[in-house]
Amino acid sequence: MQRMLTFLLVIFMLYSCTKVNSLPSDQTKTAVVSYSVTRSTDGNSYDTFYFPPFDSTLGKLYGVSLSMVITTVHFSFTLENHEDSTFRYLVVLGRKDFLSLGGNQNLRVDSQTLALNYTLGPSDNQPGLGADYIAVSQLEILHALTFSDSIPYAQLFNSEGNVAVYHQSSTFGYTLNGVRFTLRGSASDQLVMTLQYHYLAKAG
């Protein structure tokens, strides 16, 4: 019986510390402490975001939330037709983002795609010139994508004991048709990662 009561107490403590729900009563007050990191990358990266652990002197931890805002993703590319005749290309630009916590809990962020049509003239055998070639600079393919969720505090710790969030991005471009062409591209992005600790303390 005592082992059962201990087990139920552990379950209750885990639930109360990892779920952000309504406050117990008006005899309590709350505080939210936020830590944010802003980074710019080449759109294809694997980054680690480190955050401070929660501060027990501020009160009892009753919830943790994580949010990522991808403020913008740009893609620049050149496309050249090597066919002997005019050809209409369907170009697909895309972005995928993946999040994981220090404790290896994976959080998937939905991918985004943008499809565009470009009609290029027959090849003139002059690379980078003419009606068979197009250059597109800083095309915005994603704007203000937000991911947020409540997460278990214990799963934020990595094997070194640090509070860590891992982010992997992939930005890409390809054509759905055509055989003889050259497509080259590069990307850039900016994102903000925010970790929030929700504290519960007795009202003073």
Detail the poorly predicted runs: 1-23
Largest sheet: 4 strands, antiparallel
How far apart the termini lie comes to 38 Å
Describe the global form: elongated
What kind of oligomer do you see?
single chain
What is the string of SSEs from the N terminus onward?
HEEEEEEEE
**DSSP helix fraction:** under 10%
Mean pLDDT: 84
Strand content: over 45%
**Could you give the count of β-strands?**
8
User: How many domains make up the coordinates?
Assistant: 1
The helix tally amounts to 1
- Determine the structural class based on helices, strands and strand pairing: mainly beta
Using only C-alpha atoms, the radius of gyration works out to 24 Å
Order of strands in the sheet with the most strands? 1-8-3-6
Structural summary, described in words:
- The protein has 204 residues and is mainly beta.
- The protein has one domain (2-202).
- Helix content is 8%, strand content 61%.
- Strands 1-8-3-6 form a four-stranded antiparallel β-sheet. The protein has a four-stranded antiparallel β-sheet with strand order 2-7-4-5, with no helix packed on it.
- A hairpin with a 4-residue loop joins strand 4 (87-101) and strand 5 (106-120).
- The chain is elongated.
- It starts with a helix and ends with a strand.
